[in-house]
Specification:
This protein has helices at residues 44-51, 76-81, 99-103, 118-131, 147-159, 177-192, 204-210, 235-243, 304-311, 336-342, 351-355, 362-367, 382-395, 412-424, 442-457, 469-475, 498-505; strands at residues 4-15, 18-29, 33-37, 61-66, 69-71, 84-87, 165-169, 196-200, 213-218, 221-227, 262-273, 278-289, 293-297, 319-326, 329-331, 344-347, 375-376, 379-380, 430-434, 461-465, 478-483, 486-492. It is of the alpha/beta class. Helix 4 (118-131) crosses helix 5 (147-159). Helix content is 32%, strand content 27%. The strands form 5 sheets. The chain has a 6-stranded mixed beta sheet, with helices on both faces. The protein has a 6-stranded mixed beta sheet with strand order 16-19-20-13-21-22, sandwiched between helices. A 4-stranded antiparallel beta sheet has the order 2-1-4-5, with helices on one face. Strand 11 and strand 12 (278-289) form a beta hairpin.
């Protein structure tokens, strides 16, 4: 390893009742891509928040050395001045502002010390966009860009400040495979320009693909640092160090024998989005059987989530036409509550903004969608709520000090289990899972997959939307591929391959 640009020595960080980091040491060489992996709650993000000044000097113990000089950051501004930039999974862009305004926000180019030189700002923004290979007009509003392009704007924003260490926290979690590959190539290019990158990701294959070195954290402690160039890094090795045990097959075995009985059927389904002024779903036909995992694959923007929402009471207000049959009977869900009452539930792809109430505790989130079940004459029975939450905490292995813990304090995997518990409590016959393992670690994924298998064995019908083709292939009984708002093809799992799925997904 070359000389370190960064060393973090014996970092300990405590929160009320929790030791998030316990004597963690972390060393990064100059000009490398350093992977940082571990289960949710292992301490990865906390460690990077210490490094970036989110947790300022004095709130932790241990030392940060940048080029052998002790650092005492009082806030993010101090770490930015030192050449450190962090990009979070939840992008910190202002949608209504232009690309160039976002890039230079807080670092405006002044003409005379009093007014902003907008012409020079646009010119420099165009130059930095070329560096990240983003071919867009810098005067376009950020809200009009895809998620993948917004991610590149975030990186451009960091690079224009002459960043020396670029930290990316789950940068590809919401990206499709093409955008993910583009981002990884960009990291390689920045390495050639001398930028040191720290990559936090649950997508181990991506880490293995680009990282020079990988550090594994578990339970707030440094487990090991591995050299990729010495052949020390592989997926089984990383998984073993992350979870403390070997997981030979991330997709638990299940016999694929769904019943012939159709639970939900959609016929000639169409949807028009008045905000976009165009059709988003056209002539959709599909069915899901009892005890089946039905996978929905497709590129981002293909219409998968829009299809799920249009079925689940149409909360987005699309103009919908077509037939919906539930257990052979025609139904019409004018509101999500009607779908829930009938037996259809939908777990959103965005658990933090739309799936959970982060300021409420675990028990309140679990019972939120079915309060009538625990209410007595219109008043919630606290004892009943505690009983229900305790049962789901145990059955789904939700790791929390208490069911009265605020959900915002849980790891991503445990937040996802709370989301799942909320929808299982409504006792659905059909459960739609939209990106059920996005942003969670391999151990938590395995637990979610095990729960899915148990549910279909009990006769539940599951529709699973996923951007990870390996997940679709590893969990589904049948697969539908969505492309351009249409069903591009259907295949049983026995005939499915990544190549076949991608061919259909790109067939507009």
């Amino acid at each position: 390893m070359s000389a370190p640009i960064l060393e973090m020595r014996n970092i300990t960080k405590k929160f009320p009742g929790v030791k998030a980091l316990d004597e963690v040491s972390f060393r990064v060489a100059a000009g490398e891509i350093h992977g940082l992996v571990g289960e949710n709650g292992a301490g990865k993000s906390t460690l990077m928040k210490v490094l970036s000044g989110v947790h300022p000097y004095g709130t932790y113990t241990g030392d940060i050395l940048l080029r052998n000089e002790l650092q005492k950051y009082k806030g993010i501004g101090d770490s930015e001045k030192a050449g450190i930039a962090i990009i979070y999974q939840e992008l910190a862009l202002i949608p209504e502002m232009t690309v160039y305004e976002n890039i230079f926000l807080g670092h405006e180019i002044s003409r005379n010390g009093f007014t902003v030189d907008w012409n020079e700002t646009i010119k420099r923004a165009d130059e930095i966009l070329k560096r990240v290979r983003l071919d867009v007009n810098p005067e376009i509003k950020v809200k009009d860009l895809s998620v993948g392009k917004q991610q590149l704007v975030e990186i451009a924003k960091a690079l224009h400040r002459d960043v020396k260490i670029l930290i990316l926290d789950e940068p590809t979690a919401a990206l499709n495979e093409d955008d993910s590959a583009n981002l990884l190539n960009l990291l390689r290019e920045q390495r050639e320009h001398g930028v040191t990158c720290i990559l936090i990701s649950h997508k181990l294959r991506e880490v293995i693909e680009v990282a020079d070195t990988v550090t594994v954290l578990r339970d707030g402690q440094t487990i090991c640092t591995l050299d990729a160039h010495q052949g020390e890094v592989s997926e089984p090795v990383l998984i073993k160090h992350m979870v403390g045990r070997e997981i030979t097959n991330i997709y638990p075995d299940r016999e694929h024998h769904p019943a012939a009985e159709i639970t939900l059927e959609v016929k000639d389904w169409n949807a028009y989005d008045p905000r976009l002024g165009r059709d988003i779903l056209k002539g959709i036909n599909f069915n899901v059987k009892k005890g089946e995992v039905l996978g929905f694959a497709g590129l981002m923007g293909s219409g998968r989530t829009e299809l799920a929402l249009s079925i689940f009471g149409n909360p987005e207000g699309y103009r919908v036409a077509g037939e919906l049959l539930f257990n052979g009977e025609k139904v019409d869900f004018g509101h999500p509550q009607e779908a829930i009452d009938t037996g259809v539930a939908y777990l959103t792809e965005d658990r933090k903004d739309k799936g959970l109430v982060l300021i409420q505790d675990v028990k309140q989130n679990i019972t939120l969608a079915n309060l009538r079940e625990i209410a007595l004459r219109g008043v919630v029975d606290n004892n009943a709520e505690i009983k229900v939450a305790g049962e789901y905490r145990a059955s789904l292995n939700i790791k929390t000090p208490s069911i009265e813990q605020k959900v915002r304090n849980l790891s991503g995997g445990n937040q996802q289990k709370v989301c799942l518990a909320k929808w299982l409590f409504v006792k659905p016959d059909v459960l739609i899972l939209d990106e059920p393992t996005r942003g969670i670690d391999v151990g938590a994924k395995y637990e979610i997959y095990t729960i899915i298998n148990q549910l279909v064995q009990e006769g539940l019908s599951i529709i699973m939307i996923s951007s990870e083709l390996s997940e679709i292939l590893g969990m589904s009984d049948r697969i539908y591929v969505v492309s351009g708002g249409r069903i591009a093809g259907e295949m049983p799992i026995e005939n499915a391959t990544q190549e076949k799925i991608m061919q259909l997904a790109t067939d507009y």
